[in-house]
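In this section we walk through a basic example: taking a raw amino acid sequence and producing a predicted 3D structure, encoded as discrete structure tokens. The instruction is simple. Fold the sequence below.
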Amino acid sequence: MAKTKALLTPISDTMPVVVDVPGREPSGALWVSRFPGSREVADCDSPFKDGLSAFIAAMVAAGAKVRISATYRPAERAYLMHWAWKIWKGLADPQKVPAKSGVHIKWDHTDSAGHYDKKKSVDAAAAMVNGYDISDLGVAPALESQHTLRLAVDMSISWSGALTIQDKAGQSIVIKSAPSSGMNKDLHAVGASYGVIKYNARGTDKPHWSSNGK
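The resulting token sequence is shown next.
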């Protein structure tokens, strides 16, 4: 007797059925609080930590406002941020995201019939992007980065008027150029004197500084 091949769906139904893996939890905003990172300079490693602390102190003393949003980022959190952003941008298929040990997330959502639901999947990723506050990034958060190595910081910086700031050598630098933010190239030079390098790799990552600019 010839063997017949079992089908998950009737021949007339062209929609694939997603076979779930027990123990996985659907993606969405609830994941944002998992694997928390840090906003503390103290959680960075030296010598970057020491230079960052001194650079921030110099900016504050000069009258700038500095708000840190992230320093150390666990690899699991980096994974969640990376793939949520790529799914939201349409750069990754929720059904094909590689798994990560210890992160039991289900990126591909289904409808009531068990069929893959792209809109639900993308909407859930978008909720994560908003929760992580990374919607303005021009590049996906890296899976492995200076954040996971405790050698990076994301911070917003602003001031009004001219900024007179001391570099690491103690020299006073007057910054009159625009913009009055962390994207100011004269401020980048001051940061570099402390070993805090503005992001200079592919894409746009406005708040990111690190030990090597990546």
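Looking at the output, two observations stand out. The mean pLDDT is 90. The first strand starts at residue 25 and ends at 26. In the next section we compare this with other chains.
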